[in-house]
Every structure is written in C-alpha cells, then in structure tokens.
Design goal:
This is APC4 protein. Strand 5 (198-207) and strand 6 form a beta hairpin. The protein has three helices and seven strands, in the order αααβββββββ. It is α+β, with helices and mostly antiparallel strands and 234 residues long. The longest helix is centred in the middle third of the chain and has 26 residues, at 83-108.
Length: 234
C-alpha cells in the first residue's frame, strides 16, 4: 500500500469510527457506523447517524404546503429508520390495500363451464406442458370472449379457438373448434400431401374478425419456411 492509501483509510476510520460518548448508554458498540451501511441493517432501532434534512427542498416544500402536509396519499417519511424498516412498513400498507379487492373479486368468481381438452397418464412423475400459446381477446361488439391456444403432441398443425359469451347464462354455437393448417398452403395440386405441412408458432387476434398466425414448415432442414397468414373468423 502507498502512503496515500494508508492516509485514506486512516481518514475514513477517524471520520466514521470515532468514539461517541453520547451513545455509551445504548446497546452495542460505541462508534458511528459507516453511514451507508446503517441504512441496510434489518433492524427496527433508530439510525446511529440520521441524515441531515435541513435545507432539503422536498421537505421544505411539504412543510409549507397546507394541502400536502397531512395528505394520506403521501407515504410517511421516517428519517430515523433504516430502509428495511421502511420496506416492511410499505409492504404492510400495500397488503392492507389489496386485501379488500382480493376478497371481493374472489367471492365474485365462479366456474361457468368445464371443457376437458386432453387426458394425460396419472403415472407420470412430471406433468408435460401440452397447453401452449393461450391468447385472450374480448369482442365488445358481440360480447364474446375468445381464447386461442394449441395443444402439443399429435395436433401441432391445429390451432384451437374457444369462445364464450361474457354473459355466463348465455351460450354460443361452436364453443370450441380447431383449424388445421396441414398442407393447405401448397402451391399446386401436384405437390405431395405430405410434402409441405405447417404448424403454428404463434397466433393473435388482429381485430374482431381476423386472426394473425405465424406458421412454420415441418421439415428437418435449414431455411424452414415461415408464413405470416391472416385468417377471417368466419
């Protein structure tokens, strides 16, 4: 170490770890801790070296504002406490705010219908993910709620469309249907039926009447063809 390094460390110790007789009656060591570290201690005790807020523009602004001084919208400030203490206080208030909506929403939700989509073996250790690409769309004009999804394994060339009326007491025709792409994109009738099959990489609603899909050609070779297609719901 150079003499400059030693001087720097000595100055640091002199400034932050000098004896503080006014703290002798408190638990623990009788030294001023490093001023950043004190904010990170997970303790409820007051800070050993609280910040000096004199001249702080924000505090002066609040002090001189009759409307903001007692506003319940402002989170209270604890200049004597660490960040861990403030974090716990904020989490408690947020949990309290969210509890009532959670109770109300929870009581209002109920199952409208149950539609088995596939079956899996109960003996398997881990349940495979067969449900993919769920995308939700709400048609406010006709009050119909749609879900687009694909099911892996034997139906990778199909995209499924589930639709339900937003009024659970009403039903819609063709509640669930599947669109199979297969080889519908072949350029000519001369191509083999198995030569160009497509599976769905992604699907979203473009608007209330149109679905946009990204298709991938199912061939094991470089440069697999990708197709962006728009399908009318009709």
């Amino acid at each position: 170490m150079t003499q400059k390094d030693i001087t720097f460390v000595a100055d640091f110790l002199t400034e932050h770890f000098n004896e503080a007789p006014e703290l002798y009656n408190r638990k623990g060591k009788y030294f001023n801790v490093e001023r950043v570290g004190q904010y990170l201690k997970d303790e409820d005790d007051d800070l050993v070296s609280p910040p000096n807020t004199e001249g702080n523009q924000w505090f002066n602004f609040l002090k001189n504002s009759t409307h903001l001084k007692e506003s319940p919208l402002l989170f209270p400030y604890y200049p004597e406490k660490s960040l861990h203490f403030v974090k716990r206080q904020m989490e408690g208030i947020i949990d309290q705010c969210l509890q009532k909506p959670a109770d109300v929403i929870g009581r209002s939700v109920h199952q409208a219908v149950c539609l088995p989509l596939y079956k899996i073996s109960q003996s398997e250790d881990s349940t495979p993910q067969l449900f993919k690409l769920p995308f939700l769309w709400n048609d406010k004009t006709s009050n119909i709620h749609y879900v687009l999804f694909t099911i892996l394994e034997n139906s990778i060339s199909k995209i499924h469309i589930l639709r339900r009326h937003t009024d659970t007491s009403r039903s819609v025709s063709n509640g669930v249907l599947a669109v199979e792409f297969g080889n519908i994109l072949n350029n000519s009738i001369n191509e083999s039926s198995d030569s160009r099959c497509y599976s769905c990489l992604d699907a979203h609603f473009y608007d209330d009447e149109t679905i946009t899909v990204v298709l991938k050609e199912n061939v094991e070779q470089e440069g697999k063809e990708r197709v962006l297609a728009q399908l009318p719901l009709s």
